[in-house]
TrEMBL record:
The lineage of its organism: Bacteria, Bacillati, Actinomycetota, Actinomycetes, Micromonosporales. Residues 6-139 form the HTH marR-type domain. It comes from the Bacteria. This is MarR family winged helix-turn-helix transcriptional regulator. SMART domains: HTH_MARR.
Amino acid sequence: MAETERADLGAMVMRLGRRLLAMEQPILEHHGVSMWGYVVLTALRDGPARAQATLAAAIGADKTRLIPILDDLQRRGLIERDPDPADRRVRLLQLTPEGRTLQKAVQKDIRAAEEAILAGTEDREAFVRALEALSRAVS
């Protein structure tokens, strides 16, 4: 196919993104977590975030819309928001053991569903590496 005959990258990414989101939604519902809740759990997986505003910026969320999500995750015992010993005006956000378990379970199910989508894809490892590189390049 000639270069001018292929779909634009945006069109291809949007089609794939819509399919992936549709695939993830029942998994998230099964685990009782919203998409943004899962994004927060995943962002906190590697360590605590110093301040809600920092977390919001890291995940590309509006900090005012993030507060109810954090409230829900905390109420459910999935995250903790504790005063930072270095600055008590700041809250450290971190996963609880239950939050870590839930994040891992959701991610395991999402990865299994991704594998089903990628199964027929030639050179899928190269696709995933390229997607990771593009994602880093635009962050």
